[in-house]
């Protein structure tokens, strides 16, 4: 049986061959008979209007600044820093924009704020808790907003910035 396969295979391939190529020749002649298409012209180059920069009394941006200029531009470090040893709270993984105040709760003469996260979970917070990604410490909770102070990084240290989350409508 194995000896017959090499003999039969060429016979089968010869049966598949079609020597009539009139349709192919017709297509080639049709393509050759078509008129040649023109090449698109090169687009015209538009003239650019020049601009002359005059620095006048400004420093050249490509040269290093003088020692005196650097000293006057440097903002002194005010000593504010986030506590690296403080354990992060759950609401510090969210941006303030993604948090919504949904109400307050008073219990044992303490006011709690109710904050809803973007995933729909409601958290209870009090004064002194932290929330937001800039070490925002809650300073006051009222019926209509939660006030906090954030430590915003600057080029040379940190700056305290007041922020608030207002009571939102659902």
Keywords, separated by commas or semicolons:
elongated, alpha+beta, four-stranded antiparallel sheet, 3 helices, three-stranded antiparallel sheet, 18% helix, single chain
Structural commentary:
With 170 residues, the chain is α+β, with helices and mostly antiparallel strands. The chain has a domain at 90-166: SH3 type barrels (Roll). The chain contains 3 helices and 7 strands; from the N terminus they run H-H-H-E-E-E-E-E-E-E. The chain has helices spanning 5-16, 22-33, 67-73, and strands spanning 100-107, 110-116, 122-125, 130-131, 136-141, 145-153, 158-166. The strands form 2 sheets. It has a 4-stranded antiparallel sheet, with no helix packed on it. It has a 3-stranded antiparallel sheet with strand order 1-2-3, with no helix packed on it.
């Amino acid at each position: 049986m194995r000896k017959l396969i090499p003999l039969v295979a060429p016979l089968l391939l010869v049966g598949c061959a079609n020597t009539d190529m009139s349709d192919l020749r017709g297509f080639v002649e049709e393509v050759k008979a078509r008129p040649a298409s023109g090449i698109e012209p090169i687009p015209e180059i538009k003239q650019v209007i020049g601009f002359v920069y005059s620095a006048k009394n400004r420093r050249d941006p490509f040269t290093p600044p003088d020692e005196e200029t650097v000293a006057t531009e440097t903002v002194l470090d005010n000593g504010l820093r986030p506590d690296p040893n403080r354990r992060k709270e759950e609401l510090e993984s969210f941006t303030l924009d993604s948090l919504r105040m949904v109400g307050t709760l008073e219990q044992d003469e303490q006011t709690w704020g109710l904050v809803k996260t973007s995933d729909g979970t409601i958290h209870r917070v009090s004064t002194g808790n932290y929330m937001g990604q800039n070490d925002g410490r809650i300073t006051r909770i009222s019926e209509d907003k939660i006030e906090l102070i954030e430590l915003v990084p600057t080029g040379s240290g940190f700056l305290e910035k007041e922020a608030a989350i207002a009571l939102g409508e659902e």
